Structures are given as C-alpha cells and as structure tokens.
Amino acid sequence: MTPSTGERHVTTRVGAISLSDEGTGTPVVLWPSLFSDRRLYTHVCRLLGGGWRTVRIDGPGFGRSDPPRGEVQADTYADVVIELLDALGIGKAFIAGCSWGGQIAAHVGAKAADRVNGLLIMNAPLGPSLGGHAFEVFGTRWFGASRFWGKGVAGSMVSPTAWQMHPERIREFVSAFPSFDRRAAATTVRTVLTRFPGLEDVLPKLAVPTTILMGAEDRLYPVDRMRGFARLAPGAMLEIVPSCGHLAPLEAPEAVVAALHRLAAGPRHIA
Fold first, then answer.
1. CB-hemisphere CA count at 13 Å for 52?
2. CATH for 7-129+197-264?
3. pLDDT tens digit string along 5-26?
4. Distance between CA atoms of 91 and 214, rounded to whole angstroms?
5. What contacts 228, CB < 8 A, 6 or more positions away?
6. Residues 125, 112: contact at Cβ < 8 Å?
7. Rounded Cα gap, residues 76 and 265, in angstroms
8. In whole angstroms, what is the distance from residue 156 CA to residue 120 CA?
C-alpha cells in the first residue's frame, strides 16, 4: 500500500498508530470501521476541501498500525485518540468515526469533553455486542486478507443502492483487503463483535455537540433497533441517510461532509 501524504507513526499505549495528517484549519480525527483503514475516508476528505486538517487513522488490525495487543476495548482506544491529539499538537478537534470508530468517538466525548469540539457517530452499533458472530471471526482469520472475503463483507455492509450507483467505490473498498493481516484483523473483529459492552452508560455522559448518523438501508444495525439507544445521548441530532447502508463515508460521503459542516457551524437547533 502506498503511504499517504503526511503519513506518521505515533507511539501510544497500544503500540504504533499509523495515520495521515493533511491540510490546515479545523482539525477532525477520522477513525474507520472494521474491515477498513484510513482509505474509507478518501471521498470525505476530497469533498471537505480546504479549511480542514484531517487526521485519518488506521485502526489496529487494519492498515499500517501495529497489530492489536489482545482484546483492546473502545474506551482504551479513546485514550489513544487523546494521545494522538497531544502528539500532533492539537488542543481540540472534531471526532468522527464509522461503526467501530463511532463507538470510540463516543468514548472520547464522554472521557475528554474539553478536547472535543463535536462528535459525528456514524453507523455505530450502540448496544452491546456480546456473543455470536463466529462466522465473521473465523472467516476473517482464514480469509480476511483476500478479495473474496472483501466482497462478502461488502455484500453485508453496503446498500444495494450504493452497489448500483457507485460500483467503483465498492471495488476500492474490496481492493484494500489483501493488504490486511488476517490474524490481527480477526483479533479486532472478535473484540468488537463479541466483547463490546455497548454504549448505554456512555451516551448519557455526552456533553458536546453530537450528531448520530444512521443509514436507512443498514441491514446490520437497522435504524429501528438503534434509535432507542441514540435517544440516550442528551441533545444529539439523529440523521437518517437515505439509500445508505453501514458505511456512510463510502456510500454517502456528501452526507458525512454536510454533517461535519453543520457541527462546525456552531450554535444550532437541538431536536
């Protein structure tokens, strides 16, 4: 994989985290979902344009970061985000994450409100993920570094509309899989899908501007199942993106950029 412009490796409590740090202006930290690395946000960053400093992270288990050191939970990765902000000389930032990244973003907001300008939580499983998912874990362990597995993952995550409208984006997503370490990826997948305790105790603690974005066609975590958890976040804006499945940065980058701009605009109506 060709290194991104502005690539850095920052030593943290969980090992070296690889990231790309690009642009100047309003800082936003972007943590991807499972089965993806910083490239998930390629289209988002292109659309954001000038005026933003984008910090795109490779989550341990995917991309160029060190492999996960056992079953590291989202609250620990939230501490890692703060370490990254310190290392990059960033006082406050917007924190955005998709799925697994959204879980981490919520923990950052609850732990370190003084370092957060706002949160964008996208497609995140908000409830507990305890047990099950043996197929995903074992499939990742044995086939996780293959386009074959990537196509299967995309089939479960991406909406039929996105497959039809943007097949080139799906090909980009699948093309990343051969660069992953399947054993490292399986560790992260097992932790997130079978050990995550949920955000029921975290969401009520959020005291920063927060947008929770869900895909109308998300088959993994449907809106009807997640809406009740979203209401636990005081004053959070819930946005449902039409024709979007589980990967908003890939399927609907325009909606992601619009949500970031609304957060950055300052005082807003709270629904």
1. 20
2. 3.40.50.1820
3. 589 999 999 999 999 999 999 9
4. 29
5. none
6. no
7. 30
8. 23
Question: Taking the alpha carbons of 61, 130, 121, 44 in that order, is the dihedral positive or negative?
Answer: positive
Bridge partners of residue 122, in order along the sequence:
98, 213
Write out the two tokens for 35.
């089965």
List the chain domain ranges.
7-129+197-264
**Does the pLDDT at position 224 exceed 50?**
yes
Residues 228-256 pLDDT 10s: 999 999 999 999 999 999 999 999 999 99
CB atoms near residue 130 (< 10 Å): 12
Give the separation between CA 172 and CA 22, rounded to whole angstroms.
Answer: 21
| pLDDT 10s digits, 75-103 | 999 999 999 999 999 999 999 999 999 99
How many C-beta neighbours within 10 Å does residue 15 have?
16
Amino acid at 213: L
Q: How many other C-beta atoms are found inside a 10 Å radius of the C-beta of residue 83?
A: 15
Phi-psi region of 250 (alpha: psi -120 to 50; beta: other; left: phi over 0): alpha
Does the predicted TM-score (pTM) go above 0.85? Answer: yes
